[in-house]
TrEMBL record, chain A:
Protein name as it appears in the record: Xanthine dehydrogenase family protein subunit M
Taxonomic classification: Bacteria, Pseudomonadati, Pseudomonadota, Alphaproteobacteria, Hyphomicrobiales
PROSITE patterns, per the entry: FAD_PCMH (PS51387)
Domain FAD-binding PCMH-type: 1-219
UniProt KW keywords: FAD, Flavoprotein
UniProt keyword Zinc-finger, yes or no: no
TrEMBL record, chain B:
Keywords attached to this entry: 2Fe-2S, Iron, Iron-sulfur, Metal-binding, Oxidoreductase
Protein's name in the database: 2Fe-2S iron-sulfur cluster binding domain-containing protein
PROSITE patterns (UniProt xref): 2FE2S_FER_1, 2FE2S_FER_2
MF GO annotations: 2 iron, 2 sulfur cluster binding; metal ion binding; oxidoreductase activity, acting on the aldehyde or oxo group of donors
SUPFAM superfamilies, alphabetized: 2Fe-2S ferredoxin-like (SSF54292), CO dehydrogenase ISP C-domain like (SSF47741)
Annotated transmembrane regions: none
Every 2Fe-2S ferredoxin-type domain range: 5-81
Domain of life: Bacteria
Record bears the keyword Iron-sulfur: yes
InterPro entries xref list: 2Fe-2S-bd, 2Fe-2S-bd_dom_sf, 2Fe-2S_ferredoxin-like_sf, 2Fe-2S_ferredoxin-type, 2Fe2S_fd_BS, Aldehyde_Oxdr_Iron-Sulfur, Beta-grasp_dom_sf
Length: 330, 170
């Protein structure tokens, strides 16, 4: 590991350009990347003792989650389990208990891709080494993107949590080094690779995630489904976070976010629009997803995702809208 | 120049002070500086769980944590579980159920399982739990122990050992 300076942030108010460095929270991904010398920061600023550890209800009914809340504590929170179950489920589908105990809400968003060519410093990777090429494109790309990729990068964002956050219309609250705060929709925090895949997200250098807001009155029916290669501790091949209401039997407030398929959690807005106001049926689910997948592109090993994904989403929608389940959840 | 950093940390009830290289993992600090060689360096990347320690009541992968970030923390390693020569209930259960072969992963398995029992008491959910109740205990244990690999494949006996102490809480 390359040497670095270590300092601790006592409070977000103490952020300053002079103290700039890479933020260290749970470190479960960052320290791993530093061991591989894929991340080589000159300085680490430990933010785990800077507060931001509350989950609180806001006056407008929204829930504010401090960025240093661990994945374990967020998944176990009673408000989250009751009103935002898709978020609790997504967190519990991820990683292991040891990792969830360390990983934080802010850090989970900012974890980096697990593309094996990004991790292998002997291979070409535009994300790790801009301009070097992409060995995934013609390599073993079973886990790679089918939506929104570019000729420079087909990596996917690995988070489960961020997919649920996107489906819940969560907003990320940040503070820049100059003290200016801003709110970023969770589904717009990450970017598509384009010709700059080295940039995972839209945050500026030194911009700190302070908290995440979950809007009040989320859709009542929610579920997260993850397809993975072993029954625990594996990243998603594909995943889907779905939230909706049923209004006289018709689907409303439909939100679908997809994981394991793009450089960011993918809001399936075409499918959402196609389903809004419709009666639930398998034909309708598949038709909506077909629309969503109209520009999907496989790269060989991952072609199967184009067929798999609509079926996964249709399965979640079927289970959520089945009358027996709906009756159970009053 | 990158400075050494002061650290005050309590491990198995004993306070330690040291000046350390910020790069040092909690695992390396315990093994090399404190001579606590129970926690093992298996993969050193958070994938195998052989390095599992309990920090402030929560199990973590000590290989993925910088020692310097544990200022003031209370750490328990496998060496801290027995009371003198009296093994903990889980340690006895691992012996009774023959829950290991080579033993390399065992310190991590037992630390992990020790924290698991507390998590069950606390009511922490797992992905196999229903909203209001646990799954069958063996299924909960298998899911909740997925961060600890055993290359000898002693999994059946590991589950039996933990289950014998956890009882039937489902």
């Amino acid at each position: 590991m390359k040497p670095f300076d270590y300092s601790r942030l006592d409070s977000p108010d103490a952020l300053s350009p002079l103290g700039a460095g890479k933020f260290l929270a749970g470190g479960t991904n960052l320290i791993d990347l530093m061991k591989h010398e894929i991340e080589t920061p000159d300085a680490l600023v430990d933010v785990t003792r800077a507060g931001m550890k509350e989950i609180s209800q806001q006056p407008d009914g929204s829930i504010r989650i401090g960025s240093q809340i661990t994945n374990t504590d967020l998944a176990a929170n009673s408000d989250v389990r009751q009103n935002y179950p898709v978020l609790s489920e997504a967190l519990l589908w991820g990683a292991t208990q040891q990792l969830r105990n360390k990983a934080t809400t802010g850090g989970n968003f900012l974890q980096r891709t697990r593309c094996q060519y990004f991790y292998d410093t002997a291979r070409a990777c535009n994300k790790r080494d801009p301009g070097s090429g992409c060995d995934a494109m013609k390599g073993l790309n079973r886990f790679h993107a089918i939506l929104g990729a570019s000729s420079s990068c087909i990596a996917v964002h690995p988070s489960d949590m961020a997919v649920a956050m996107a489906a819940l219309d969560a907003e990320v609250l940040t503070r820049k080094v100059d003290g200016v705060e801003r709110r970023i929709p969770a589904s717009e925090l990450h970017r598509l690779p384009g010709d700059a895949p080295e940039r995972d997200h839209v945050l500026e250098n030194g911009e700190l995630i302070m908290a995440v807001d979950l809007p009040a009155s989320p859709p009542r029916l929610q579920s997260y489904r993850k397809i993975r290669d072993r029954s625990s501790y594996a990243f998603a091949v594909v995943s889907a976070a779905v939230a909706l209401d049923l209004d006289d039997g018709r689907m409303s407030n439909v939100r679908i976010a997809l994981g394991g398929v793009a450089h960011k959690p993918w809001r399936a807005s075409r499918a959402e629009t196609a389903l809004e106001g419709q009666m639930p049926s398998r034909e309708m689910f598949l038709k909506a997803m077909k629309e969503e997948m109209s520009e999907a592109q496989g790269h060989g090993h991952n072609d199967f995702k184009i067929d798999l994904l609509p079926r996964v989403v249709a399965g979640v929608l079927r289970d959520l809208t089945a009358p027996e389940r709906n009756g159970d959840r009053t | 120049m990158h400075a050494m950093h002061p650290l005050r940390i309590t491990v198995n009830g004993q306070e330690h002070r040291a000046d350390i290289d910020p790069r040092r993992s909690l695992l390396d600090f315990a093994r090399d500086s404190l001579n606590l060689t129970g926690p093992k360096k298996g993969c050193d990347h958070g994938q195998c769980g052989a390095c599992t320690m309990i920090v402030n009541g929560r199990r973590i992968n000590s290989c993925l944590s910088l020692a310097v970030s544990h200022e003031g923390d209370e750490v328990t390693t496998i060496e801290g579980l027995a009371e003198g020569s009296d093994l903990s209930a889980l340690q006895r259960a691992f012996v009774e159920h023959d829950a290991f072969q080579c033993g390399f992963c065992t310190p991590g398995q037992i630390c992990s399982a020790t924290a698991l029992l507390d998590e069950l008491k606390e009511g922490l959910p797992s992905v196999v739990s229903s909203p209001d109740k646990l799954a069958e205990m063996d299924e909960e244990i298998r899911e909740r122990m997925s961060g600890n690999l055993c290359r000898c494949g002693a999994y059946n006996n590991i589950v039996a050992a933990i289950s014998s102490v956890a009882g039937d809480k489902s």
